[in-house]
Amino acid sequence: MDVLNSLGSGLLHVFSLGDFSMLLLGLLIGMAVSIMPGLGLVMGVVLALPFTYRMPIEPAIILLTAIYVSGTYAGCFTAILYRIPGEPMDVPLLWDGYSMTQRGEAAKALGWALVAALTGGLISSAVMVALAVPFSNAALKFGPPEYFAAVFFGFTSIAALAGKSFVNAFISLLIGLWIATIGVDQTYSAQRFTFGMPVLMGGLPYVVILVGMYGLGELISRVGRGLPKIEKPPDDVAVGTSFPSLREMWSIRSTFIRSSILGTILGIVPGAGATITSFISYGIEKQYGKRRDQLGKGVPEGIVAPQIGSTASVAGHMIPLLTLGLPGSGATAVILGAFLLHGVQPGPLLFTQPDSKIVVYSILASLFVGVIGMCVMGFVWIKVVVKVLKIPQPLLVAIVMVFCIVGAYADRNSMNDVWIIVVFGVLGFLFERFRFPIAPMVLGVILGPLAESSFIQTMVSYNNDWTIFLRHPISGTLIGLSIVALAYPLVREILGRKPKPILLGGES
Amino acid sequence: MKRTTFTASMLGALGAATVATPQLARAEDAYPSRPITLIVPWGPGGGSDQVGRAVAKNLQDVLKGTSIPVINVPGADGNDGMVRLAGGDADGYTMVIFIADTFVGNITAKTPPAWHLSDITPLAMMNTMPFAYYLSKDSPYKDWASFEKAAKTTQMRVAITGYGSAEDIGTKYFANKGGLKLTQVAFAKPGERYAALLGNQVEVMCDPIGNVSHYVESGQMKPICVWAEKRLGVVPYCPTAHEVGYKVVLEEWRTIAVKAGTDPKNVAFLDRALASAYKTADFQAFLKSSWSDPDSYVAAKDLPAFFAARRKDVDTLIAATH
Which residues from B are below 8 Å from A191, CB to CB? Predict the structure, then answer.
């Protein structure tokens, strides 16, 4: 009951002027960035981050979370209507969605997507609220060995899941871990890789790294490729939404249930972002669905499964973030950054103190309101929203570029950070160019210090006995899972089975 | 015509402002003529940030018309912010919060940081609070005596902020003096440190008393020994280190400083302004709510002696552990 009470007070907070306006703004930004090809939802969250420096923590996190959640939805509009996937996660939607549009059932397809986003969002949010307290109670029992094992598991699963090449993902992760060591180390105050330069002594601020890799790097790549001519959406496509009947929904209930559970669970796994969840959800439908043979020819399951998957993964990702302070995806890494900028370390303590508890529950409540809000907006304003496509690309690139640079400067009011962002922008471009996934590196930078400090704390606390990682039940289990995650790609290689190609333009 | 009335009204406003300005600002003719920035070398939300913002707010009220923007420059245990001040102009328009952590770290650092104590001119001590040891509510020990007895035979883990910090050298002294088996475990982030104690990952924790006041009030943490000579009014039941036989006084203190070489007139001006800001009811209420020492204030002229004394204390502690 306590949970419902807290959620109720959280809900009241969400409807206060400050929080609610940020929620609406976040939903709009999320929709806009997820429709524009090349501006992903991670980019949206990254660009909004510098604007939250001066805000109180609650509206700040609500803004970013709203961008995150609506960013998993609006991309389906353009995918279904014009065959333009705004985000990589919308690619599976397009196979069935656009086929329906060609048959003149665009409105129906949009209706299915809306119902799916609503279902996935609400079910996974409910699961998240139900799990948050048990998770945080378990998290309080997490000592240094468990934290190290959890981060280690995060690293291995990120490497295993991110992109086509396991080796490249691993290299990317190690580069991130190396960058995390630059500066004065927090345990013994030793200088590492500083070359005596004052700029490097404080370490590299990960906010700047995030904005550089995800924001600036992406822009440089796009300018390098030549900006795509996005065809003006044809005006003869009728833009509207019509809901499927209850009977139709009932007939594919198993798809709804399967994808919701799958999306939430995959969300908890670090490294499985909305994109991967969307593809896996579609893949499962293709293997076990009732009408698997018709998938891809314009059946609703082909829209519902990936859409539920991507929206449900948001709430799934919020659980480890809020209870353990472990981000499992690019967007949650940025949200963690916002927490830390406000001097709040997400973790089990958030749930033990009244003033931080209300902040957490406001964030949880904002997800429910956000999911409903984005569906209402999508229904009412879809005509307006798809017009975002008409913004000229060069203008867009210039605006985003300015946001990136100003954002880098504003964090610590330092010109050094502007140079650092340029360096990481170029690095992000090179990563893209040589097919190295960015997500493992960024998570390496953010979680590296935690991995290191928890490892050293364990060694100090247990007199350098490394077997402690295997002897504690929780950490032992996680280390076991990590070994499985590491072995899986190798086994797959050995068996010579080509895995299903997972397109990863970006990781969300 | 319009223009003249505008100018006239502006002049009128200026005149009114001059009349309304207190004694304090009229003693100076030009300084301060623009905002004075206060650098907080720590992240937002922490203890030093709260003190910085409370000082800025009350200083603004005292100066009536000069705003005091606060900027956070976190990084490298407070050294980034100090370097920022040391690298700027000595014009009196940039101040910094200089605290015990940075001071002790500067003494114990293996590689000297990029700034030196002689680079700053301290203005006023605005806030002090002693360190203390805490047990969690489900600890098997109930007070210092029972903890001390057990620590002579069993290995105890002590959560501290980092090696070379005040908590670290103080704990080394305790271990040496009492023959206690203490292992310091470093948790750089306050949240990690508190979770480690509450989750019983460590047996005891060391932290400034004001930083954990709400945990103590709610009964989740119990102070068992405060590193001071006199008992604290806020936790009268908690014995001091001196009472239990350890001659250690270490407190978290926070001073305001400007760059060395600033015009002595401006230093004197800020010194007086900070003294008035310290006396405001609002700042006093802040000290009370943050469990700070009620007479934290030390004036600029006494600070060099204070630093020298603290330097000696730290050296003595370090010497006692070798």
Answer: 111
